């Protein structure tokens, strides 16, 4: 493992499988009456959120607390950032308070990379989503969810996603989730197809290790998992598509379309969902939809990542068992 | 002023000759000239060029003296071998009146490192709506002949047409920053493979090319000449080549950085590589070099754009666009054009002195190195190789994309009308 987690593209197959396997161990902790490990006791982690986020920040916070880390939450609104303080000064201020890791969410693509590589701070940097670039822990929790559903929690240990067919549908152009997933799923051996209207596919996509299709219906029968991306209503005003209704008719997932997927195939969504836009309530609430599982798995994945970045080489869970005795 | 004998310099890269400067003019060029009463500069092995002329410099004064002033900018120019710089109009206040252009012109004159020829804004406040008083700027002491809203595109086709027509009355030229504004909303880098991966807003080549295509057609229609700033794409080259083949009066410039660097560098997210127009692809770089060699692109212009450290020591989105270039331009041209065999030193003199002086009508600059001409000269040690150290820059700013990069060539002497502004690489 590297010292930082900036991009899903930085992970090797073995790194990624190690994180998924570690997350599996962490998931078992969640089933215990006391959901806490002492692994990061005495370590301080700051959640540095320059962009609004509820679920990702809470998920990181839950993960940090379950590992017994001291947690500082920093959100840009109402802070000195709104008074013009730079990212560099903010980061250095926090580090001066003795922070071991910075979990950063930023609206600017590359901000976590800059934070990790400019010599501004020494702390480990975890990217919690930067602009339209990357969201590596989201990709990891998605892969974790797929492995559990398509292979099984125990059977999946040590396994990657070789040969699985994953379809990602929606606003690829503005999606850090799509970018991270394409990178990670490719590393794990899966075959990825992106489906979107041509206006929401970036120019230059030909270098990505995936297929691109404009036709959802022909892709669905060949999918083991279908991931729906949120489509912001504002995009309509920028002429990416004519109307919401036309978008959801052509690219939304409803019950009829779900019926064309293979029986074992699952529906995924990184949240927050726009019901009635990219996904109907019928699909969102069905057993095949993993949205709620993804949230639970997010905590396990983030525990695994923080543990592997900060916890050193000692095994996370076995050490706890020793202490419990 | 006394006599100076430059001994054994390869004039424009040719056979070694002696050049005698007397006062402000070149007295004699030949071999074995008498050194009597003259200060001698041994120039064996070095190349002597006419003083370089930069048609595209941002001096930042008035308004952003924290990044550059006329003094520091002209010192940087002298240090890079320049004897004239054209100062862009996007200052605070904007150089859209006779008052502002005269101020900049006077400051250049007072400091004496390099002639400063102000460029006037095409539209009031660079806002693209209303023509600035172009005639008043031309008639001012600054004698403005080049007009540009650089930093912004004169995107309104009617305003552009009127500007092209209007300046014909006094032989002016409009220099267009070709950037279709709607296609570049939120643009942060070249749109292509790298932007798709990095998730940075794309600046498509077509946003430059469509404006150039429109403007050469407009220039043709109204019978004006037009100058295109900082060409950055292979497609732009094709359009300019086509326009020239049709006899349209278009001239074009390329920056040193677009001759050397590509958008692959943006992968570092280091804002020192953030510039407008953005760094393009290898294919574009090669097309630009070829076009500069065959004359499709007329000149090299630096687009020297100083910014304070804090405007680059930040995340990509928050960073300012632009790079300093005056002190590295000739080295980059040697690296990309001379050492590759695309251009000889006479060609460099043409692209960096004769032609830009001609386009901008810089009197007494861009003249042949021969007797009776003003002694605006640059002496280059072309055998030198060294890595770029921004700490040694005369510019107030350090935002160079070449830090630590080894580049060939070094300007050792610059003379402005016979007065040395740079001696042995040190400013006077």
Automatic annotation (TrEMBL), chain A:
Residue span(s) of domain Aspartate/ornithine carbamoyltransferase carbamoyl-P binding: 3-147
- GO biological-process terms attached to the record: 'de novo' pyrimidine nucleobase biosynthetic process; 'de novo' UMP biosynthetic process; amino acid metabolic process
Binding annotation for L-aspartate = 83, 176, 230
GO molecular function (one): amino acid binding
Q: Which gene encodes it?
A: pyrB
Q: What is this protein called?
A: Aspartate carbamoyltransferase
Q: Which family does it belong to?
A: Belongs to the aspartate/ornithine carbamoyltransferase superfamily. ATCase family.
The protein's UniProt keywords, in alphabetical order, are: Pyrimidine biosynthesis, Transferase
Catalytic activity line of the entry: carbamoyl phosphate + L-aspartate = N-carbamoyl-L-aspartate + phosphate + H(+)
Give the top-level enzyme category.
transferase
Q: What is its EC number?
A: 2.1.3.2
Tell me which species this is from. Answer: Streptomyces coeruleorubidus
User: What this chain does, per the record?
Assistant: Catalyzes the condensation of carbamoyl phosphate and aspartate to form carbamoyl aspartate and inorganic phosphate, the committed step in the de novo pyrimidine nucleotide biosynthesis pathway.
From TrEMBL, chain B:
According to UniProt, this protein's pathway is: Pyrimidine metabolism; UMP biosynthesis via de novo pathway; (S)-dihydroorotate from bicarbonate: step 3/3
Which amino acids does the record list as binding Zn(2+) 1?
56, 58, 150, 303
> Which cofactors does this gene product need?
Zn(2+)
UniProt: substrate binding residues: 58-60, 90, 276, 307
GO CC entries: cytoplasm
Enzyme Commission no: 3.5.2.3
Swiss-Prot/TrEMBL GO biological process terms? 'de novo' UMP biosynthetic process; purine nucleobase catabolic process
Q: How is the cofactor bound?
A: Binds 2 Zn(2+) ions per subunit.
What is the reaction catalyzed? Answer: (S)-dihydroorotate + H2O = N-carbamoyl-L-aspartate + H(+)
Could you name the active-site residues?
Answer: 303
Q: Where is the Dihydroorotase catalytic domain?
A: 45-233
Which class of enzymes does this protein belong to? hydrolase
InterPro entries, alphabetically? DHOase, DHOase/Allantoinase_Hydrolase, DHOase_cat, Dihydroorotase_CS, Metal-dep_hydrolase_composite, Metal_Hydrolase
Output the superkingdom of the source species: Bacteria
Q: Which PROSITE patterns match?
A: DIHYDROOROTASE_2 (PS00483)
Keywords from UniProt, A to Z, are: Hydrolase, Metal-binding, Pyrimidine biosynthesis, Zinc
Q: Which residues bind Zn(2+) 2?
A: 150, 177, 230
Q: Name one Pfam family in it.
A: DHOase
* Molecular function as annotated in GO: allantoinase activity; dihydroorotase activity; zinc ion binding
The UniProt function text for this chain reads: Catalyzes the reversible cyclization of carbamoyl aspartate to dihydroorotate.
Q: Which family does it belong to?
A: Belongs to the metallo-dependent hydrolases superfamily. DHOase family. Class I DHOase subfamily.
What is this protein's record name? Answer: Dihydroorotase
Q: Which organism is it from?
A: Streptomyces coeruleorubidus
């Amino acid at each position: 493992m590297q010292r930082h987690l900036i991009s899903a593209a930085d992970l090797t197959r073995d790194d990624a499988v190690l994180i998924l396997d570690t997350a599996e161990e962490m998931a078992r902790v969640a089933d215990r009456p006391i959901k806490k490990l002492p692994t990061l006791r005495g370590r301080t982690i700051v959640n540095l959120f320059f962009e609004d986020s509820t679920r990702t920040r809470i998920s990181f916070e839950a993960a940090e607390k379950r590992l017994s880390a001291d947690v500082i939450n920093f959100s840009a609104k109402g802070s000195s950032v709104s008074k013009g303080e730079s990212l560099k000064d903010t980061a250095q201020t926090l580090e001066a308070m003795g922070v071991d890791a910075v979990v950063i969410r930023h609206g600017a693509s590359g901000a976590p990379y800059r934070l990790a590589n400019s010599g501004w701070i020494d702390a480990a940097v975890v990217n919690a989503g930067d602009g339209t670039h990357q969201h590596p822990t989201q990709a990891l929790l998605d892969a974790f969810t797929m492995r559990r559903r398509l292979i099984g929690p125990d059977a999946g240990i040590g396994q990657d996603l070789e040969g699985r067919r994953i379809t990602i549908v929606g606003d690829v152009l503005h999606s850090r989730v799509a970018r991270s997933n394409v990178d990670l799923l490719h590393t794990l051996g899966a075959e990825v197809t992106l489906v979107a209207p041509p206006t929401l596919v970036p120019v230059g996509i030909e270098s990505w290790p995936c297929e691109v299709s404009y036709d959802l219906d022909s892709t669905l029968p060949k999918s083991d998992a279908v991931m729906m991306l949120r489509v912001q209503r504002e995009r309509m005003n920028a002429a990416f598509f004519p109307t919401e209704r036309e978008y959801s008719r052509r690219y939304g997932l409803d019950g009829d379309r779900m019926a064309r997927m293979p029986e074992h195939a699952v529906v995924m969504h990184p949240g927050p969902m726009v019901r009635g836009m990219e996904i109907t309530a019928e699909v969102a609430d069905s057993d095949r939809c993993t949205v709620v599982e993804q949230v639970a798995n997010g905590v396990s994945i983030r525990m695994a990542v923080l543990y592997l970045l900060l916890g050193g080489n000692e095994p996370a869970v076995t050490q706890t068992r020793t202490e419990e005795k | 002023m006394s006599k100076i004998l430059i001994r054994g310099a390869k004039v424009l890269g040719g056979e070694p000759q002696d050049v005698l400067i007397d006062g402000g003019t070149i007295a004699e060029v030949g071999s074995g000239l008498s050194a009597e009463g003259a200060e001698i500069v041994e120039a064996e092995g070095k190349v002597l060029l006419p003083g370089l002329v930069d048609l595209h410099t941002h001096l930042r004064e008035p308004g952003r003296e924290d990044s550059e002033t006329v003094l520091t900018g002209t010192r940087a120019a002298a240090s890079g071998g320049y004897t004239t710089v054209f100062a862009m109009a996007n200052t605070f206040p904007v150089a859209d009146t006779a008052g502002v252009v005269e101020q900049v012109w006077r400051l250049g004159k007072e400091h004496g490192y390099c002639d400063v020829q102000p460029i006037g804004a095409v539209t009031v406040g660079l806002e693209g709506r209303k023509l600035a008083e172009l005639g008043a700027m031309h008639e001012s002491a600054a004698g403005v002949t080049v007009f540009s809203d650089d930093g912004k595109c004169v995107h309104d086709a009617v305003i552009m047409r009127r500007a092209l027509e209007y300046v014909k009355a006094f032989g002016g030229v409009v220099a267009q920053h070709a950037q279709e504004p709607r296609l570049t909303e939120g643009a942060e880098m070249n749109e292509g493979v790298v932007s798709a991966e990095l998730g940075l807003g794309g600046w498509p080549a077509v946003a430059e090319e469509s404006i150039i295509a429109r403007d050469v057609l407009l220039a043709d229609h109204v019978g004006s000449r037009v100058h295109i700033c900082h060409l950055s794409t292979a497609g732009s080259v094709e359009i300019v080549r086509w326009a020239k083949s049709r006899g349209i009066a278009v001239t074009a410039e390329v920056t040193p950085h677009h001759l050397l660097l590509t958008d692959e560098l943006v992968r570092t997210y280091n804002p020192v590589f953030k510039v407008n127009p953005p760094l393009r692809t290898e294919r574009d770089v090669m097309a630009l070099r070829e076009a500069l060699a065959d004359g499709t692109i007329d000149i090299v212009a630096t687009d020297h754009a100083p910014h304070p450290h804090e405007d680059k020591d930040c995340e990509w989105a928050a960073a300012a666009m632009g790079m300093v270039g005056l002190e590295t331009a000739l080295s980059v041209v040697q690296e990309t054009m001379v050492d590759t065999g695309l251009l000889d030193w006479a060609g460099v003199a043409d692209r960096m002195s004769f032609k830009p002086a001609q386009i901008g009508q810089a009197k007494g600059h861009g003249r042949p190195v021969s007797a009776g001409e003003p002694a605006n000269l640059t002496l280059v040690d072309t055998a030198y190789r060294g890595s770029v150290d921004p700490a040694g820059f005369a510019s107030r700013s350090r935002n160079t994309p070449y830090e630590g990069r080894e580049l060939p060539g070094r300007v050792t002497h610059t003379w402005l009308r016979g007065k040395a502004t740079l001696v042995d690489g040190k400013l006077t």
